[in-house]
Specification:
single chain, alpha+beta, 7-stranded mixed β-sheet, 23 helices
């Protein structure tokens, strides 16, 4: 057992204050786990024998937020530092598979630790008293094991969100589930239907943004768990594409594509959804499998499931756009690049290139030959932007008022501006007032 770990100065002050007032107090849960693992800690949870009103008296000189007073939790704030302090407690029955009907305060730290989800989160620490680790959580941390406190089935039956938290801890921290925990994750997956969409959303996104080397085995071993949230995953598992561009089945390809793109929520979600429509579109002819229209079907699945999971509007729109266009033509051609920058905007354009690269990295070598072309297109686009080349109406040397002054009216104004923008992008006209005006006169005379 470690003799000492480094807590924040404020958390140490909070623990000492409670101890000086005659109460037990310990840092507990994720903050202790992360300290042991050498991972930065931003939130400190303190567990104490003090009742909530006693905690408030101890910290009467600080700002106090009654975060969850009914469950024994208050938050204390000092000069921007916060600590969440909760009274030792045991939980009543979890009738909704998510929250205990009642909580009962207890003077026993051991009883408090017994109600926690995983051993790695059931370690308490006080600078004055050291560790309390009755479930050998530190050993599990060093062994890289995710183990439930007590019976795994019971832990997941109490709070089904723990199923998603388990997958997240594996993907983010690299834990491997010990056998009984792994079995329970599969057997109790149906309980996820009792969890709110918002909480599923949060855990799913955190999991997907885990380290690729940790995330890959999680996605490969637990597709059935994720299938409770997104049922369209299951037809992809083991689906042979029978196509020379693919040497992996649909789910294997999807997982590799997810792990091949940077760990940004919108990109990882896009790769999760991008091919889920393939099984529904499969056709076999000319001795190969084909998936005509799968991007559109995948987008429909993406739209439905992201709406169910209550994603924010910006993430929803971006991911849906990426899924819809994940197989559109993109190549290192300055004219095409400028038109696409104009149509999609800079951020979506570069995201689409990242999606294309990740998609092809998860295909057979014959398809991976296109990756350098995508990377070259990204460099060309960066030069276009850096050199402030014209690719949008705002970059044109004329505006709507100039076109009106030339005698154009109504829809003619927009049409004329678009004509000039295309001419500049295609190199048919210089982007200066005189050249643009002259080009418009010539075009008008030739109509």
């Amino acid at each position: 057992m470690n003799e000492k770990i480094i807590l924040s100065d404020f958390s140490v002050e909070v623990i000492k204050r409670l101890e000086d007032a005659g109460y037990e107090a310990y840092a507990v849960g994720g903050c202790v786990r992360n300290c042991i693992m050498g991972i930065p800690v931003f939130d400190y949870d303190i567990t104490t024998s003090a009742l909530p009103e006693e905690t408030e008296r101890v910290f009467s000189d600080m700002k106090i937020i009654e975060t969850g007073i009914k469950h024994g939790t208050v938050t204390v704030v000092k000069k921007g530092n916060t600590a969440e302090i909760t009274t030792f407690r045991t939980d009543g029955e979890y009738k909704d598979r998510r929250h205990p009907e009642k909580v009962f305060f207890t003077p026993s730290l051991e009883e408090d630790l017994a109600r926690r989800d995983f051993t790695v989160n059931a370690i308490a620490y006080s600078p004055s008293k050291g560790f309390v680790d009755i479930y050998n959580g530190e050993k599990d941390i060093h062994d890289g094991l995710l183990r439930c406190v007590g019976e795994a089935e019971r832990r997941f039956e109490e709070d089904a969100l723990r199923i998603m938290r388990g997958l997240r801890f594996m993907a983010v921290y690299g834990f491997k589930p010990e056998p009984k925990t792994a079995v329970a994750l599969h057997e109790k997956k149906h309980l996820l239907k009792a969890v709110s969409p918002e909480r599923i959303n949060s855990e799913l996104c955190k999991m997907l943004c885990g380290k690729s080397e940790y995330l890959y085995p999680v996605l490969m071993k637990f597709p059935d768990v994720l299938g409770e949230i997104i049922p369209e995953i299951m037809p992809c598992v083991g689906f042979d594409q029978k196509n020379h561009y693919h040497n992996l089945n649909v789910w294997e390809h999807t997982v590799k594509a997810i792990c091949s793109v940077e760990a940004v929520t919108r990109l990882r979600l896009a790769m999760l959804f991008h091919d889920l429509g393939k099984p529904a579109c499969y056709q076999f002819y000319n001795e190969e499998g084909h998936f005509k229209g799968h991007a559109s079907v995948s987008a429909d699945i993406c739209e439905k499931r992201m709406e169910e999971l209550r994603f924010d509007n910006d993430t929803f729109k971006t991911v849906l756009s990426l899924v819809k266009r994940h197989d559109m033509i993109m190549r290192d051609d300055s004219v095409i690049i400028k038109k696409q920058l104009n149509k999609y905007g800079e951020e979506l354009f570069f995201d689409l290139l990242k999606v294309h690269i990740a998609d092809d990295m998860a295909k057979a070598p014959i398809a991976q030959g296109r990756i350098e072309g995508y990377r070259a297109a990204a460099e060309t686009a960066k030069k276009v932007i850096a050199q402030k080349e014209c690719f949008s109406l705002k970059d044109l040397a004329v505006n709507g008022n100039d076109i009106i002054a030339m005698g154009y009216k109504g829809k003619e104004v927009g049409n004329a501006l678009q004509l000039l923008l295309n001419a500049v992008i295609e190199g048919k006209c210089q982007n200066d007032f005189g050249s643009l005006a002259e080009y418009l006169v010539i075009k008008k005379e030739n109509v």
